[in-house]
Amino acid sequence: MVNEHKPIDNLVFELQERAKELNCLYTIEDSLNRSDISLRQAFHTVINAIPPGWQYSNVCKAKLVYGDIVYQTSDFEETKRVIKSDIVVQEQTVGHIAVYYTSEVPPADVGPFLKEEKKLLDTIAERLGHFILHQKLKNVFNEFQSVRQQVDGHTKGEWRIVLDMIRKTDPNLFMSLLRKTLHLLCWKGVEEAEMLMKHTSLSWRGGTTDEELQYDDNKPLKVSKMVNYDQYVETILKLADDNLPDDIILSRIQKWIQEDKSSALVKVVETQDTSLTDIADAIRRYYHMAPEKFELPPSTIKGLRVSLLRRFFTEQLEYISVAKEYVKLTDFYKLIDKMIFPSGSHGKLGGKSAGLFLSAHILQKVGESVELLSDIKTPKTWYITSDGVLHFMQHNNLEEVLEQKYKEIDEVRIEYPHVVQLFKNSEFPPDIIKGLSVALDDLGDKPLVVRSSSLLEDQMGAAFSGKYKSLFLANQGTKQQRLVALMDAIAEVYASTFSPDPIEYRAERGLLDFHEEMGVMIQEVVGTKVGKYYFPSFAGVAFSNNEFRWSPRIKREDGLVRMVPGLGTRAVDRLSDDYPVLVSPGQPNLKINISPEELRRYSPKKIDVINLETNDFESILINNLLDECSAEYPLFTEIFSVLDGTMIRQPGPLDVFDNSKEFLVTFDGLISKTNFLKRIDVILKTLQEKIKTPVDIEFAYDGKDFYMLQCRPQSFLRESNSDSIPKEVPEEKIVFTAHKFISNGRVPDITHIVYVDPQKYSEISDRNKMLNVGRAISKLNKTLPKRKFILIGPGRWGSRGDIKLGVSVTYSDINNTAILIEVARKKGNYVPDLSFGTHFFQDLVEAGIRYLPLYPDDAGVVFNEKFLNSSQNIFCDLVQEYNYLEDTIRVVDVVSSTRGSILKILMNAEIDEAIGMFAQPSTETSLEKEYKEIVEYHPGDYWRWRMKMAEKIASELDSNRFGVKGIYVFGSTKNAVSGPGSDIDLIVHIEKEKCNIKELSLWFEGWSLALSEMNYLRTGYRSSGLLDIHYVTDEDIKNKSSYASKIGAITDAARPLKFKAKVN
Amino acid sequence: MSSDKAFNPFEMAQTQFDKVAEILNLDEATRQLLRNPLREFHFSIPVRMDDGTTKVFRGFRVQHNDARGPSKGGIRFHPQETVDTVRALSMWMTWKCAVVNIPLGGGKGGVICDPHHLSMKEQEQICRGWVRQMAKNVGPLNDVPAPDVMTNAQHMLWMLDEFEAIHGAKFPGFITGKPVGMGGSLGRAEATGYGVIFTLREALKELGIRPQDTSAAVQGFGNVAQFAIELYNQMGGKVVCVSSWDQNDQCSYTFKRASGVNLQELLKITDKFGGIDKAEAKKLGYEILDGDAWIEQEVDILVPAALENQIREDNVGKISKKVKIIAEGANGPTTPEADKVIQERGIFVIPDFLANAGGVTCSYFEQVQSNMNYYWEKDEVLGKLDVKMTAAFHAVSELSKKRNLYMRDAAYVISVSRVAQACKDRGWV
What we know:
Distance between the termini of chain B: 35 Å
Number of domains of chain A: 6
Helix content of chain A: 40-55%
Strand content of chain A: 15-25%
CATH architecture of one domain in chain B: 3-Layer(aba) Sandwich
Radius of gyration of chain A: 38 Å
CATH topology of one domain in chain B: Rossmann fold
Largest interface: A-B, 50 and 48 residues
Structural class of chain A: alpha+beta
CATH superfamily of one domain in chain B: NAD(P)-binding Rossmann-like Domain
Helix content of chain B: 40-55%
Shape of chain A: elongated
Low-confidence stretches of chain A: 200-216, 221-226, 924-939
Largest sheet of chain A: 6 strands, mixed
Number of strands of chain B: 12
Shape of chain B: globular
Strand order of the largest sheet of chain A: 6-22-21-13-14-15
CATH class of one domain in chain B: Alpha Beta
Oligomer: heterodimer
Order of helices and strands of chain B: HHEEEHEHEHHEHEEHHEEEHEHHHH
Largest sheet of chain B: 7 strands, mixed
Structural class of chain B: alpha/beta
């Protein structure tokens, strides 16, 4: 027996065994599928194929008994070491097949036999049963043929001969055919048939003759039982004979026989409690018996497809109604071969798999007639069904982890690393390991990505995606090493179900009780090996609708592609330190970045790769990669451009080898020389049309082929949902409306408006004063609450040089605004061009800051200058040093100017409309449910906790000891707008002479670190301290300098906190 | 239609000129001639757009003065270009060429368009259209365009190609800003930064200070600053700190090391935009200070080489008493209010206009080489640059001393007087 201490040997051994078994099965399957083979030949093949499939082949003998005939292998000798399976044809045992060991062998599961061997024998027996039936039917038909030839032209009644034979061989089928014949007769309007259906003495027993009168919608009908079977049959056959032409009956019978073959599958699939194992078996069997060459009626096919979609993917009707048109039964056959599931599984594959499966098949089908869509590939993928995680936990007795989600979030966070370790140190159930091992053989040693495909993702949309892990594996080393690494990764992905972020997210949305299961996709990473790295030439995401348009010439439906060299991870996520390349497939020639400076600034600097030597996923500098192996980079000339002085050009043949050149990622070659964007455009449009909603897809290109990695409705993204624009808003409630170049996007509630008056700005004649407008804006940007204010200004924000056109600012001067608004006022008879944010467009995109152009002079547009100009201007209170700009820059505190309203900006790209209007702060009940879900969740908790802590600090502060006269809280905590990463801003009023700042700072430092740790546990945000302390003196307060101005300020004043009572 | 009070760059340039004309006591005719451009061209450029429609773009070329030689000046692609902006800039080019005493006049041109909303093909059509309209009035012997706002080497090559197609011959001297190997000049990258230090070297000489005894604080770490530091180090000077923009933090930091910064070491930890890696710098022993800290260092020399308006009323007071020279590597780094303070304190200023004229001088060299169709090695370019810059500095400095003018005014006065003289000599006025 294999030593238990050597699991590797054990595994290898088991795998060898499985391979032998499969071989045996294939040999048998192969010979039985030959149409010309006789029973005798078949039986011989079978018994000879058996011994090599068994563990101890040299002492293995097989015997087959069919009726009175016995077949056996040479030198056969009967012993007691035997397993046996009956051969059953139409529920009758017609023989058996037995395997013997002729000499003593070590004991195993079933005597000396493995349990797999017993199962194999059962399968062979079952297959033989089908084969025998098939042969029988064939004989019947042959007989029929000869009879027909004898009758020679007299075809009358030949169908009866067929039915007669069927009656003898397959009574069930015969009954079914009979029933169908009766239906057909009724359908043809044969009165007797109708009578027969419900009325004849043959068909029912008991009851009264007027039972038909008692038919009641709500009452079950009594089952009528047949008494006189033969008479019943005869009647029907006679009726058929009299009323239907022979050829029709015959063709119908043939069709019905075919239909019957799928009935087993239908039955299995339709039954709720059949397991995936049964379904898989049924599909395999069906496939062998009746591959698509049999024409099933469309209704049956559709029914089957729907049932299978429901079992494998989702119950969602929208999904099924589309998918059933594109997914063939054979597709499921291919799918089950790549599925790993526990025995008795009822799991599904999850949202991500469903999306990919559907889109791939749509493109495949449409691709048959559209050349641009042909040859779109999906990476080789294996699936673990969603209940795999439960099975895994049960196997290791980890069920108590399931309760994790009901714990306090900080507890969840503290325990999460342990959960991860626990999972990683747990064993997988043997059937899953076996599946993974087969998967690895199939996938080879290409790098893999293990992605979650959860059921909630499917329910909730992509708001949920990204909350669970996706892990890359280099998949290098021995099979055993690779298997261990794969299991490790899956365990980690499983553990991420219990990570604090998704749990918190679910808690906030009341989804904790949803029974979350997680499917796993094990996908080959698209790419090629370059040096020691592995990565695709490029990858990215593409959207049907472009919500970030940088030119008025780009329409929303022109779409948007975010792409990067290497793995697509850098295109999927918003980056804080790098930029993807943005292109609109409908307008490929309109680029965001034109000048060499812009291109340099915004072209991607890093690339995500898999390092095959260290087995790690890495982000490395593209330049370093190119230094090593620019010549090997697939599609180098399509992706990179050379920056030659101030000239950007596509690389020449020798540039690749010239490391002294500066290369920039531009995708210029790809855009201008290939049909790639056209392809993306067609893909997006096709999927949008078929799925009936805008989509976003993930893709990768390995240098040769285009791969789809993911597809989902774009509406899943928060930012691409249209707001509904309310009608009939009273004009005094409107600040502005817009009807041009509208994008979708969520804008939070606005409390402050910063308005640079276009007229006043154009009247400034001093360039320096104009520059100061920009500086004042910068100051406001740092003073006003982040993402709670908007900037409205003339012309082009971010103008350089000719700053008459717009306020001269850089991105850092405006990076806290919620939305950037440009106003185009008519000048004489022309309307100036707006910038569309191009001066820092990609920064806006990555930060999610929206852009909106306003054209106040257009017909039907509201622009409430009266409100903007007549509301109290608090500009001077905020930035005293620029008070001479008071006429030009107006800052309106919306809440105080409107007595409690906020400004709500709603944008709807579908109808190209936007409105900025006064409204009650969110959580208003009149808002649609959908909207409520989108609003920042529970911001209350963040600030409330911070406020409590601030109060706590103040109450603990010994004012005498430190010489402190007052302590104030301001900023996000005071304004109740704190986020999970916000700090607590405090102003400490000290007595200059008495205060020992060093000691006091130390005291605060302690608090700061402790609070930071607590905050981390609560939110997962790390910081080097949570307190932001500003010391002010009497003098500062008198001068209202720096933070002292916040004390007693007109707007946004700091709030005093209570001290510890003075001791003396 | 902008309002009367609106900021008008041309009027501003004229006012500035009037001030200098007053100092020079120019006669009325010369003032009239120099207050306005000699020639202006306004024209339409119809372009067939990618979608099949036709759009008409407005183009300009203003030749302010060519008394000293062919006009020279960039072509701007700007969405709200006005002829007044172009006029002002062309006048500025006249003075700029004159201050370094190169035999060129001033011009400027542009097209009202936003390249962000145009495809490359459409931009090419605009470039070629511009040349077709101007072909008879530009050329190596009368007006030489160059890249400017939103135009680059690519646009220049399209224009050159169209020009040569029309004239049926090769004229590489028609345009500057071409890539090396396509008629461009070597030394372009170094020119501005080196130019700043050539003038600084001369200033130190005049003040009787040995460069090796000096220290400097540099604002910025881009192209200009890097080459300026390189040459200054070669002269033996010590740069105590540089400031650079941090893309992640969206603010700038000053990197200080009292023993002097090491350029090569810093370049290794610098990204393409001159951003220095803070953590790495710390490891190398640099102190990381606030972005404004460069201005308050105890050094002899300040080199603002980043953006405009960096020395302002609010921070000019922080300049250390030790500072003797400010060499303006950037354009307009000092606001007028701060300039007054600096003038009062008697700090020696090498005005931007003069200090960063290395760029335009190198353009001139490109044109010269192109006309000869013979290209110099880099050393030769930089050597000739040194000669030009040194001579220019001394002329300005001498005038400043002779007439007791602030350096900034002296630079202006000398260029206007040179142009006025050329007009007189030609008998125009």
